Amino acid sequence: MQKIKKLFQALALILPRPWLLNEIIHHSSVYRKRAIKEYNLEKGLPSIDILKLFPGFNETVDPFAILEGGSLPTDIALLKALAKKYSVKNYLEIGTWRGESVANVASVVENCYTVNLPDDTILDLTDDAKYVQSHRFFSEKMPNVKHIAANSHEFDFSSLNKIFDMVFIDGDHHYDAVKKDTETVFKIIDPGKSIIIWHDCMISPENVRWEVIMGIMDGCPSDKRKYIYHVSNTLCAVYFGREMEADILIPFKLPDKKFRIEIKGEKI
Fold it and tell me: What is the signed CA dihedral for 95, 36, 31, 244, rounded to 10 degrees?
């Protein structure tokens, strides 16, 4: 009887607000069940220890705004460290935001490209001029960064005539968008040598964002899925094109590493 009552209560809420169905369809628990059933990812992606990936890990993150919607310092440091370790020459980023990540990578990479929705499209979506103005703030004047105003789902990446050594996917984080961007990127890399990094595959470094994980896995070629890992202490997943030493993610385990962060602020 109680279940029937709850059913009618739910219908009373949903019928005048059909968009609530999306909240149910795209609920984290739905994607988690799929991840377990289809990919055996009960704990999320296998996790690589960042200090095993980079012994003596030591990076400077500059610029870094510490404002809404930004990355963790370790996320951006990971990008720089990967670019240096693997001698990246051509870097692509989907999702520019303030330009912090591409500005950091541009300090160590020769050619950087970043794709983001056109300003007028963003304004139509948000009706917030200040939000639009924040885009590309740190990277717009960098000579080795080419900014492309386009929807990544419609842009012809072959027009760039590049095979990218490293790609950072940090655009729309909904399932369909992550899946589409992942499918696209695998067409413009060397799958045996290039690196792909997805941002926000985690809500926090120990808490999985299942919708993004499923977008990654469903968009990745089936024979490449085994090469995708989470990197510890970051919100990032990484494709290396080969098997790496990794462990099962254990939330709330005692810390086994520490980081030193020096903060120096200055007016722009």
Answer: -10
Cα separation of 78 and 54, whole Å? 9
Please provide the average confidence, as pLDDT, over all residues in the chain.
93
Preceding amide of 63 cis, omega within 30: yes
Q: Which residues contact 99 (CB under 8 A, 6 or more apart)?
A: 114, 135, 136, 137, 138, 139, 140, 145
| pTM given for the model | 0.92
pLDDT digits (tens, 9 = 90+) for 56-113: 999 999 999 999 999 999 999 999 999 999 999 999 999 999 999 999 999 999 999 9
Distance CA 140, CA 136 (A): 5
- Domains detected in the chain: 45-239 (3.40.50.150)
